[in-house]
Amino acid sequence: MMPEVGLVVKRYVGSLDREVTKATRLYEAGRRHGFVAPQVLRTAPSENTITYQMVRGIVPLRDLYLRYMSGGDDGQQCVATVRLAGATLAVLHRELPATDCIEWAPPPAFAKEARRRLGAGWSDRLVATPMAALHCDFGFGNIHLSRDEPSTLVLLDPSPNYYLTFDPLTVGSIYVDLATLMACLWGLVPVRHFVRLEWSRLRALDCALRDGYETVAGTRLDRDLLEATTSAVVTTYMAMRLGSGGAGRQVSRILTLLARRGIRGRT
């Protein structure tokens, strides 16, 4: 049966109750704090689906990023949206309840890269950071900007991405969500776009994400830890897409090198 016009039906593989709880918490946080998230309208437990109200008139952050990183505009809208995303993430980390959440466990590929970058004490260093209920997939596919004026941030699908997070109700280091978006900014886009990316432009996005988060959270982020965690996220993503062997490892190392050079202004 086709979904009704103006509605979105999504089928889940995990617990429907936990997905409903997470989506409802995100929607309610948006109503209180000025961002938009889809409202749960009904569920079908026999089919493990949720029907949401469709959010229309939105521009994906990925589109803004590709236009900006390809030199297509002056970047003000993209940089401002990334800053807004950072600020909104800080709100989520402050406002989403941790009730019924499980503790985040790092996948093997993440742990291996984190150890390589930070040494044997990487886990203790991450555990010592602020903990929060995670969005669980705070990346390009789920961050959008409304077309109306003034523009509003739109957040979709706070479900696990199944390479880094595996349950919608998860508590973990704030750096897990931060690094998920930063990894996207490092170039997790289709390969055909790589030749057009101007890596020197990444520095402004890096600053915007950190500034947006820090302003709302009232705390300074550890830049070295964020960079290492982002590298671990990129490695984990590439291991999922290309395997944990040579190809995935090589692509993740290249992206990390290009991103670090861009952020440091050495391209």
General description of the model:
The chain is of the alpha+beta class and 267 residues long. The protein is 49% helix and 13% strand. The protein contains nine helices and nine strands. It has helices at residues 16-33, 61-69, 76-95, 108-118, 122-127, 174-185, 202-217, 223-242, 246-263, and strands at 7-11, 40-44, 49-53, 58-60, 102-103, 131-133, 143-146, 153-155, 170-173. The strands form three sheets. Strands 1-3-2 form a three-stranded antiparallel β-sheet, covered by helices on one side. A three-stranded antiparallel β-sheet has the order 4-7-8. A three-stranded mixed β-sheet has the order 5-9-6. A hairpin with a 6-residue loop joins strand 7 and strand 8 (153-155). Helix 2 (61-69) runs antiparallel to helix 3, helix 3 (76-95) packs parallel to helix 7 and helix 8 (223-242) packs antiparallel against helix 9. The longest helix has 20 residues, at 76-95. The N and C termini lie far apart (52 Å). The model is unreliable at 1-5 (pLDDT under 50).
